[in-house]
Specification:
Length: 161
Protein backbone atom coordinates (compact mmCIF):
# COMPACT_ATOMS: atom_id res chain seq x y z
CA UNK A 1 0.00 0.00 0.00
CA UNK A 2 1.40 3.40 -0.83
CA UNK A 3 2.10 5.73 2.08
CA UNK A 4 -0.56 8.36 1.08
CA UNK A 5 -3.26 5.67 1.12
CA UNK A 6 -2.29 4.74 4.70
CA UNK A 7 -2.66 8.34 5.83
CA UNK A 8 -6.01 8.79 4.03
CA UNK A 9 -7.32 5.47 5.33
CA UNK A 10 -6.23 6.21 8.90
CA UNK A 11 -7.74 9.70 8.82
CA UNK A 12 -11.04 8.40 7.45
CA UNK A 13 -11.17 5.56 9.93
CA UNK A 14 -10.54 8.00 12.77
CA UNK A 15 -13.54 10.10 11.75
CA UNK A 16 -15.86 7.18 10.94
CA UNK A 17 -18.65 6.03 13.22
CA UNK A 18 -17.61 3.51 15.83
CA UNK A 19 -18.43 -0.05 14.98
CA UNK A 20 -20.65 -1.77 17.50
CA UNK A 21 -18.69 -4.38 19.36
CA UNK A 22 -15.32 -3.20 18.01
CA UNK A 23 -14.05 -2.32 21.49
CA UNK A 24 -14.31 1.40 20.77
CA UNK A 25 -12.19 1.19 17.63
CA UNK A 26 -13.31 2.86 14.37
CA UNK A 27 -14.58 0.47 11.72
CA UNK A 28 -12.00 -0.14 8.97
CA UNK A 29 -12.91 1.69 5.77
CA UNK A 30 -12.11 0.62 2.23
CA UNK A 31 -10.99 3.78 0.46
CA UNK A 32 -7.90 4.92 -1.43
CA UNK A 33 -5.32 3.64 -3.90
CA UNK A 34 -3.29 0.57 -3.01
CA UNK A 35 -0.28 -1.07 -4.63
CA UNK A 36 -1.28 -4.72 -4.47
CA UNK A 37 1.11 -7.65 -4.70
CA UNK A 38 -0.45 -10.85 -5.93
CA UNK A 39 0.63 -14.45 -6.20
CA UNK A 40 -1.11 -16.61 -8.77
CA UNK A 41 -2.56 -19.68 -7.08
CA UNK A 42 -4.29 -21.29 -10.09
CA UNK A 43 -3.38 -20.89 -13.77
CA UNK A 44 -4.88 -23.43 -16.12
CA UNK A 45 -4.65 -22.67 -19.86
CA UNK A 46 -4.16 -18.94 -19.29
CA UNK A 47 -1.47 -17.58 -21.61
CA UNK A 48 1.39 -15.86 -19.80
CA UNK A 49 0.45 -17.03 -16.31
CA UNK A 50 1.84 -19.75 -14.08
CA UNK A 51 1.25 -20.83 -10.49
CA UNK A 52 3.53 -18.98 -8.09
CA UNK A 53 4.01 -16.00 -10.41
CA UNK A 54 4.08 -12.65 -8.58
CA UNK A 55 2.19 -9.70 -10.07
CA UNK A 56 1.97 -6.06 -9.01
CA UNK A 57 -1.25 -4.15 -9.61
CA UNK A 58 -2.84 -0.85 -8.61
CA UNK A 59 -6.33 -1.04 -7.08
CA UNK A 60 -8.41 2.07 -6.33
CA UNK A 61 -11.39 1.92 -3.96
CA UNK A 62 -14.05 4.66 -3.93
CA UNK A 63 -17.00 4.52 -1.49
CA UNK A 64 -20.36 5.01 -3.23
CA UNK A 65 -21.96 6.83 -0.28
CA UNK A 66 -21.79 10.54 0.62
CA UNK A 67 -20.81 9.69 4.22
CA UNK A 68 -18.79 6.93 5.86
CA UNK A 69 -19.06 4.11 6.75
CA UNK A 70 -20.28 2.92 3.34
CA UNK A 71 -21.50 -0.61 2.51
CA UNK A 72 -20.74 -0.29 -1.25
CA UNK A 73 -17.38 0.53 -2.79
CA UNK A 74 -16.32 0.93 -6.42
CA UNK A 75 -13.10 -0.95 -7.27
CA UNK A 76 -11.05 -0.01 -10.32
CA UNK A 77 -8.20 -2.43 -10.73
CA UNK A 78 -5.29 -2.69 -13.09
CA UNK A 79 -4.92 -5.89 -15.08
CA UNK A 80 -2.08 -7.02 -17.33
CA UNK A 81 -3.94 -5.74 -20.42
CA UNK A 82 -6.05 -2.88 -19.07
CA UNK A 83 -8.36 -2.03 -16.20
CA UNK A 84 -11.78 -3.14 -15.04
CA UNK A 85 -14.30 -1.92 -12.54
CA UNK A 86 -16.77 -3.59 -10.21
CA UNK A 87 -18.90 -2.77 -7.20
CA UNK A 88 -17.99 -4.43 -3.91
CA UNK A 89 -20.63 -4.96 -1.22
CA UNK A 90 -19.85 -5.18 2.46
CA UNK A 91 -20.56 -8.67 3.79
CA UNK A 92 -19.39 -8.03 7.35
CA UNK A 93 -17.29 -5.42 9.09
CA UNK A 94 -14.09 -4.97 7.08
CA UNK A 95 -15.05 -7.51 4.38
CA UNK A 96 -16.32 -6.77 0.89
CA UNK A 97 -17.11 -8.95 -2.12
CA UNK A 98 -18.23 -8.44 -5.69
CA UNK A 99 -18.66 -10.24 -9.00
CA UNK A 100 -17.48 -8.81 -12.28
CA UNK A 101 -16.72 -9.71 -15.86
CA UNK A 102 -14.24 -8.46 -18.40
CA UNK A 103 -13.63 -9.29 -22.05
CA UNK A 104 -10.26 -10.52 -23.28
CA UNK A 105 -8.78 -11.30 -26.68
CA UNK A 106 -8.58 -14.91 -27.86
CA UNK A 107 -6.72 -16.47 -30.79
CA UNK A 108 -8.91 -18.67 -33.00
CA UNK A 109 -7.89 -20.23 -36.34
CA UNK A 110 -4.90 -17.89 -36.68
CA UNK A 111 -6.98 -14.78 -35.97
CA UNK A 112 -7.19 -12.75 -32.78
CA UNK A 113 -10.77 -11.99 -31.74
CA UNK A 114 -11.32 -8.89 -29.59
CA UNK A 115 -13.37 -9.73 -27.60
CA UNK A 116 -12.76 -13.45 -27.81
CA UNK A 117 -13.62 -14.55 -24.30
CA UNK A 118 -15.67 -13.36 -21.36
CA UNK A 119 -13.99 -13.76 -17.99
CA UNK A 120 -16.39 -13.81 -15.02
CA UNK A 121 -14.66 -13.38 -11.66
CA UNK A 122 -15.20 -12.77 -7.98
CA UNK A 123 -13.10 -10.53 -5.74
CA UNK A 124 -13.18 -10.59 -1.95
CA UNK A 125 -11.33 -7.95 0.09
CA UNK A 126 -10.66 -7.89 3.83
CA UNK A 127 -9.47 -4.72 5.58
CA UNK A 128 -7.54 -5.21 8.81
CA UNK A 129 -7.85 -2.72 11.69
CA UNK A 130 -4.38 -1.42 10.70
CA UNK A 131 -5.57 -0.67 7.15
CA UNK A 132 -3.80 -3.54 5.40
CA UNK A 133 -5.67 -5.41 2.66
CA UNK A 134 -5.93 -9.11 1.89
CA UNK A 135 -7.84 -10.03 -1.27
CA UNK A 136 -8.66 -12.97 -3.49
CA UNK A 137 -9.47 -13.04 -7.19
CA UNK A 138 -11.19 -16.19 -8.50
CA UNK A 139 -12.09 -17.00 -12.12
CA UNK A 140 -13.55 -20.53 -12.34
CA UNK A 141 -14.19 -20.62 -16.10
CA UNK A 142 -14.14 -18.50 -19.24
CA UNK A 143 -16.73 -18.16 -21.98
CA UNK A 144 -15.69 -18.59 -25.62
CA UNK A 145 -17.06 -15.81 -27.85
CA UNK A 146 -15.38 -17.04 -31.05
CA UNK A 147 -16.61 -19.49 -33.70
CA UNK A 148 -13.83 -21.92 -32.73
CA UNK A 149 -14.21 -24.89 -30.43
CA UNK A 150 -11.72 -24.97 -27.63
CA UNK A 151 -11.19 -25.47 -23.93
CA UNK A 152 -10.58 -22.21 -22.13
CA UNK A 153 -8.72 -21.84 -18.89
CA UNK A 154 -9.26 -20.32 -15.48
CA UNK A 155 -7.13 -18.60 -12.85
CA UNK A 156 -7.02 -17.37 -9.25
CA UNK A 157 -4.73 -15.22 -7.14
CA UNK A 158 -4.20 -13.90 -3.60
CA UNK A 159 -3.29 -10.25 -3.07
CA UNK A 160 -1.98 -8.13 -0.24
CA UNK A 161 -1.50 -4.41 -0.04
Amino acid sequence: MTRPAVVVLAALAATAALAPGAAGQPAPQLQGTFQMTGRITVAHNVRGEHVGQVVHRTWTFTPLCPTLPCPTVQLVRQRATGTDSLTLHQTQEGSYTGDGRYLAPLRCAGRIYRPGQAVPYKITVHVTPTGQLAATYVNRSRINLTPCIGVLGHDSARYTG
